[in-house]
Write a structure and sequence with these properties.
hydrolase activity, alpha/beta, six-stranded mixed sheet, 6 helices, single chain, C-N_Hydrolase_sf
């Protein structure tokens, strides 16, 4: 049996990078003290600020981004693998990548993934988001190798596009990561059921570290970082408070779930309506 203790770190990021990184570092160390070998953090872990101009004033190119050496150093210090859920990375054309990073225990960047699906929505109550106004969508799915399993990387709004998760599972992913900053209305309605569905459809473990609480200009996020097993059971739920949740992942359950319902081998081509 291959077992991995994984953690979801739940944070409340603000508009200044330095304090966000300090808070994240404290929680990463707490997760490691709890025995976690793979530690995951939410989307926008180093910065949540409203408005295109405010984002552009704070983000940096990858080579200059202050969060990258911090998370690399935390990985080396703790000996854990760390998923920095996503960072805003300034690109040459003046747009931003919402980029997820996986760091190995030696501090090296093992994989990068740019969020593919942009959150452009109008919600009841007046909440309006236009992620594509600031961010450039990615165009490549990513599966990364770790000492325990293969990890398929996604970010937040990707969760609503099951074809991405199916492609990751078919490419060998055993664990899916969904770092997020989900809104409260959509979180209450859909967060748990979508994460459980992605686990069930693929036979993967799902790690979904989340932002929580009130952020810049009153933005609210849902929290409830989740760890979900391949059969759909919720192994850990972070609730609404800043903190850490952990679970032991029995990776043999991936093959067991896929053996009981081998849906990944049953795709058929069909004509559209």
């Amino acid at each position: 049996m291959t077992t991995l203790r994984a953690a979801c770190v739940q944070v409340n990021a603000g508009p200044e990078i330095g304090p966000n990184l300090e808070a994240a570092g404290t929680l990463v160390r707490r997760a490691r003290d709890a025995g976690a070998e793979l530690i995951t953090l939410p989307e926008n872990v180093s910065l949540i600020v409203q408005g295109r101009e405010n984002v552009l004033a704070r983000v940096k190119p990858e080579a200059e981004h202050p969060a990258i050496p911090v998370f690399a150093g935390l990985a080396r210090e703790t000996g854990a693998w760390i998923l920095a859920g996503s960072l805003g990375i300034l690109l040459e054309e003046g747009r931003v990548a919402n980029r997820s990073y996986l760091f190995g225990a030696d501090g090296s960047i093992v994989a990068r993934y740019d969020k593919i699906h942009m959150f452009d929505v109008d919600l009841k109550g007046g909440e309006r988001y236009r992620e594509s106004a600031t961010f450039r969508p990615g165009d490549r799915a990513v599966v990364a190798d770790t000492p325990w399993a293969r990890v398929g990387m996604t970010v937040c709004y990707d969760l609503r596009f099951p074809q991405l998760y199916r492609a990751l599972a078919r490419a060998g992913a055993d664990i899916l990561t969904v770092p997020a900053a989900f809104t409260v209305p959509t979180g209450r309605a859909h967060w748990h059921v979508l994460l459980r569905a992605r686990a069930i459809e693929t036979g993967c473990f799902v790690l979904a570290p989340a932002q929580t609480g009130t952020h810049d200009q009153g933005r609210l996020t849902y929290g409830h970082s989740l760890i979900v097993a391949p059969w759909g059971e919720v192994l850990a739920d972070g609730g609404e408070e800043v903190g850490v949740v952990t679970a032991d992942l029995d990776l043999d359950l991936v093959a067991e779930a896929r053996g009981m319902v081998p849906a990944l081998t049953h795709d058929r081509a069909f004509e559209g309506p």
